[in-house]
Specification:
Elements: H1 4-25, H2 33-54, H3 62-78, H4 85-91, H5 93-104, H6 124-151, H7 156-185, H8 193-210, H9 214-238
């Protein structure tokens, strides 16, 4: 069951990040990195606790994967050397939103479950993290493009680097997913909703990767991000298929 220990670990992580963001954005204190890393500590403690509790990697259902996604994104931002404290306070907003979504999920979605046979494969430890690293970079890309638009700053070098990383890991996720699917369902491709929308995300990201026009490149990044959101949340909650492990 979803324990009080889990709740408090995630709650304290969220509170730590919110305190950091509010104090930094409103110039209430200059040095509050302790709250930034307290949030990281509590979130990592949740990962360790959940792993021990379920006896497998903590990204096998909606609740676990959302919090794992949040942790990866926060990890990327917190150790970045590019940003001031105020910019970091803005950039970690997606991680805070993901934590809130995780906390608000129904109790039934937080219950630890045994892995179904299809998930009992070493491909799970390559395929799933690959996609989430790619999703993390794509989310970062989306926020960077918005910041560049509203702040009128040039973040093109960071955007180019993150675009390469997102493209690489999402490509790796699709390829390893094919091998995993062949192992489980005797077919590399099954036209499952998750596979279709992952392919849509990949195609849009490929267009962004190869586009020379900066304006059109950013449009494809926006489209890739929204396609990724539907691949993850839309398919998870609205569609059914081979990947419906709620």
């Amino acid at each position: 069951m979803f324990t009080l220990i889990e709740f408090f670990l995630i709650f304290f992580a969220l509170v730590s990040w919110c305190i950091y963001s509010i104090f930094v954005l409103f110039n209430l204190r200059k040095t509050l990195t302790v709250f930034l890393y307290c949030g990281l500590f509590f979130h990592f403690a949740w990962i360790v606790y959940r792993t021990v509790l379920v006896t497998h990697a903590p990204f096998s259902n909606a609740y676990e994967s959302i919090l794992f996604f949040s942790f990866l994104y926060f990890l990327k931002i917190s150790f970045s050397k590019y940003w001031t404290q105020k910019r970091k306070a803005i950039l970690i907003l997606p991680a805070e939103i993901l934590l809130i979504i995780g906390l608000l999920l129904p109790e039934t979605m937080k219950i630890p479950n045994f892995l179904v046979p299809a998930l009992q494969s070493f491909w799970m430890f390559i395929h799933v993290p690959s996609f989430f690293i790619g999703y993390t970079s794509l989310t970062y890309l989306f926020v960077l493009c918005l910041l560049e638009f509203f702040l009128k700053k040039d973040f093109s070098l960071i955007i180019k680097s993150e675009l390469k990383q997102s493209f690489f890991f999402i490509t790796l996720g699709i390829i390893t997913g094919g091998f995993w699917a062949d192992q489980c369902w005797a077919s590399f491709w099954n036209w499952d909703p998750k596979e279709i929308w992952a392919l849509v995300t990949f195609i849009l990201l490929t267009a962004a990767f190869h586009c020379e026009s900066k304006k059109i490149k950013y449009i494809f990044i926006y489209l890739s991000f929204f396609a990724m959101l539907f691949t993850y949340f839309g398919v998870m909650f609205l569609l059914s298929g081979l990947h419906s492990y709620k």
